[in-house]
Amino acid sequence: MSRAGAARPIGEAIARARQPWVSAVTTDAIRHFAWGIGDNNPFWGGAIAPPCFLYAVDETTVAPGHPDRRRVYSAVDWTFFDVISVGSDIAAVAELVAETVDGDGIVQRGRVSFRTGKGALLATAEAFCLRTTAEVTPVDDRPEIRYSGEQLAEIEHTILSEQRRGDSRRLMEDVQVGEEIGPLLKGPLSIMDVVAWSAATSGVTRVEDELSEGGLHAETATGPELVSWVAQLVTDWMGDDGFLHQLSLTLAECPPLGTTTSMRGQVTELTICQERPAVIVALTAQNQDGQTIARGNATIMLPSKATGAVKLPAEGDVGRGN
Fold this sequence. Notes:
single chain
């Protein structure tokens, strides 16, 4: 791929068109975010926020210019260095890292760094945004999705059967390569699900806000919302004593209204990351027709009998692995 012709502020901080929806971590903001993704983990009712809570601080799309092109949130690499604690002020700094031509489209890669008011680095997100002129199917032209009573009963049974590790410590020694994770189901997606996400992370958005497509106007989930669902699969599995260090996902589409998304994972490797025991998990998200709409991996730090509790902050970036 070659560099796109339009001049862009590569490597320079980009001023956001709107104020952050959340700039201080409060119990209310955490509760609203957890509600916005349908995560009822009681752990988020205390002093810690879910990792993807940071989407309420900054949506992580860095895609300036090209007003005639859609903004498709196509991939993201999250690296988390510390927990997100109640009482913290958080500021995000965004920069455009690269802009390349890919066929008829343009891919913009941005980096957003999240720091506390004291300057401590909490996380970085490198998001890939496809800028395309391809037309999107109008809402009224989408095929209607219908479920039988039997299918709805099966979805309900699966959701009610979901389990989380919670305060039952998952040790490194408890994990085996090949272990299955999930499923975690979201759906059938309703307009209230989309409203809940918007209320938790952005409020009403405008085209000039330069966010990725999806949400209320498109009647779909957004790319960041799908990422947050997958992150919930991981945090449910790892338990309260684990730490999600890295999450990389490539997205094929934003789930529209009526779809049901199933997230699953499989342990692929037990390793050492930053001199700490870690688990690599392959992740997928599929719609109700079995089509894969997201794929990636996570690096999870777990406590161990040999090394004790997870030590934070974590340092270093393990990069993309999908």
